[in-house]
């Protein structure tokens, strides 16, 4: 890679240079929401009305955003999606699960289920990274839970969310998709996510829209003789959520940011409005990649290209890591590829909080670097 210095034009800088895939861009009003409540909520008990009202507002706002069917409930607890995978092995899978595995994160829930000695070995259907398998490919034999990711954050491939022909619970990891991808929640029994992607907050929480069947399954397992650690007890999470609180002490600042973001989403067209924003972001990135000779979208099937996490590959003669390094020095950050994927690639967060004009400026900034010859390896 050439090391010559470039004079980077000011007009190519996005208004906001944060394009990370989690943690993601946080809007200014979310930070202001913390300051606004610094004295009346921050530093007070999470089991008293001030904080419980925030949790209640989040639950009501998410119910509105996802247009939850009758009987569905929003449940939340601490630990993020990683903790939820473990909690599900204790309190949601009765005997056996079936999984679609098509990237780093969709594979991790399958691995957690495989390692749980009280469960039967799961059925795991694996597809190449960069693709999104159909739920029709699942091996449903003996499974009482079927699971996959709505959006594979590591690769930028999104899968359809539709209920297979089974009585098993449908459990969807929506960590990077929830709030930015279209979804019919009635096609799922558990649609769970962390808030540091589309919801532009800090991590450390998991939230889930749960069907009556899922709530019933949780209660059934909780009443059995299975050992369930208190931190992973889904029945405890359900009981506390109904009181608008968490079992363990939450990060109240995260709740305030999440509450503000959910209100902003509902005030700006709800889920349809957010999908319109992410669709425009995705079109800006993929149309550019389709028309730049050195670049191509990593996900070959246009229908599977994520609206919220965009991955683009570069030709062998171009150093993608060099592009990311140059742009980071200019305040355009977190476009490096997923570390374990090992590709000559950039990965771009396109969540609802990110403005399409900034995605367009990003592509123009990459054009400038490419045209300068600063990242040529030939």
Automatic annotation (TrEMBL):
Q: Tell me where on the tree of life, at the top rank, the source sits.
A: Bacteria
Give me the Gene Ontology terms describing cellular component.
Answer: cytoplasm
So what EC number does this one have?
A: 2.6.1.52
What cofactors does this protein use? Answer: pyridoxal 5'-phosphate
Q: How is the cofactor bound?
A: Binds 1 pyridoxal phosphate per subunit.
Which key words are in the record?
Answer: Amino-acid biosynthesis, Aminotransferase, Cytoplasm, Pyridoxal phosphate, Pyridoxine biosynthesis, Serine biosynthesis, Transferase
Its signal peptide is none
Record-listed pyridoxal 5'-phosphate binding positions? 81-82, 105, 153, 173, 196, 248-249
Q: Which SUPFAM superfamilies match?
A: PLP-dependent transferases (SSF53383)
Q: In which pathway does it act?
A: Cofactor biosynthesis; pyridoxine 5'-phosphate biosynthesis; pyridoxine 5'-phosphate from D-erythrose 4-phosphate: step 3/5; Amino-acid biosynthesis; L-serine biosynthesis; L-serine from 3-phospho-D-glycerate: step 2/3
Q: Where does L-glutamate bind?
A: 47
Q: Which residues carry this modification: N6-(pyridoxal phosphate)lysine?
A: 197
Q: Name one GO molecular function term.
A: pyridoxal phosphate binding
Return one Gene Ontology term, BP aspect. glycine biosynthetic process, by transamination of glyoxylate
Q: What class of enzyme is it?
A: transferase
The record's annotation in InterPro entries points to: Aminotrans_V_dom, Pser_aminoTfrase, Pser_aminoTfrase_mycobac, PyrdxlP-dep_Trfase, PyrdxlP-dep_Trfase_major, PyrdxlP-dep_Trfase_small
Task: Enumerate the subcellular locations listed in this protein's record, separating them with semicolons.
Answer: Cytoplasm
Per the entry, what this protein does is: Catalyzes the reversible conversion of 3-phosphohydroxypyruvate to phosphoserine and of 3-hydroxy-2-oxo-4-phosphonooxybutanoate to phosphohydroxythreonine.
Cross-referenced PANTHER family = ALANINE--GLYOXYLATE AMINOTRANSFERASE, AMINOTRANSFERASE CLASS V
Q: How does it assemble?
A: Homodimer.
Question: HAMAP family of this UniProt entry?
Answer: SerC_aminotrans_5
- Please identify the protein, giving its name as recorded: Phosphoserine aminotransferase
Highest lineage ranks of the organism?
Answer: Bacteria, Bacillati, Actinomycetota, Actinomycetes, Mycobacteriales
Q: Which gene encodes it?
A: serC
């Amino acid at each position: 890679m050439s090391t010559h210095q470039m004079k980077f034009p000011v007009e190519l800088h996005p208004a906001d240079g944060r394009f990370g895939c989690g943690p993601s861009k946080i809007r200014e009003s979310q930070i202001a929401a913390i300051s606004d409540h610094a004295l009346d909520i921050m530093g007070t008990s999470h089991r008293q009305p001030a904080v419980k009202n925030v949790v209640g507002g989040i639950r009501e706002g998410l119910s509105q955003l996802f247009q939850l069917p009758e009987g569905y409930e929003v449940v939340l607890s601490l630990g993020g999606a990683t903790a939820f995978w473990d909690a599900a092995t204790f309190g949601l899978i009765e005997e056996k699960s079936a999984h679609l595995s098509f990237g780093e994160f969709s594979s991790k829930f399958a691995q957690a289920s495989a390692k749980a000695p009280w469960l039967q070995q799961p059925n795991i259907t694996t597809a190449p990274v960069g693709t999104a398998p159909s739920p029709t490919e699942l091996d449903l034999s003996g499974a009482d839970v079927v699971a996959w990711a709505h959006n594979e954050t590591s690769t930028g491939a999104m899968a359809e969310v539709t209920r297979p022909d089974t009585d098993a619970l449908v459990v969807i990891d929506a960590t990077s998709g929830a709030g930015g991808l279209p979804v019919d929640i009635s096609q799922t029994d558990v649609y769970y996510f962390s808030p540091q992607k589309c919801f532009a907050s800090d991590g450390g929480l998991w939230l889930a829209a749960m069907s009556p069947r899922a709530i019933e399954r949780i209660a059934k397992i909780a009443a059995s003789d299975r050992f369930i650690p208190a931190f992973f007890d889904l029945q405890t999470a359900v009981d506390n959520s109904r009181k608008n609180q968490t079992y363990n002490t939450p990060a109240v600042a995260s709740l305030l940011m999440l509450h503000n973001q959910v209100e902003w989403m509902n005030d700006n067209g709800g889920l349809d409005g957010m999908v319109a924003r992410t669709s425009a972001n995705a079109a800006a990135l993929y149309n550019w990649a389709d028309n730049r000779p050195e670049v191509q979208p990593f996900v070959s099937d246009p229908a599977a290209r994520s609206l919220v996490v965009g991955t683009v590959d570069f030709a062998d003669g171009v150093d993608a890591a060099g592009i990311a390094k140059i742009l980071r020095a200019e305040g355009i950050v977190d476009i490096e590829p997923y570390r374990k994927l090992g590709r000559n690639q950039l990965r771009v967060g396109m969540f609802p909080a990110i403005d399409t004009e900034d995605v367009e400026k990003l592509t123009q900034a990459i054009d400038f670097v490419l045209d300068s010859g600063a990242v040529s390896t030939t």
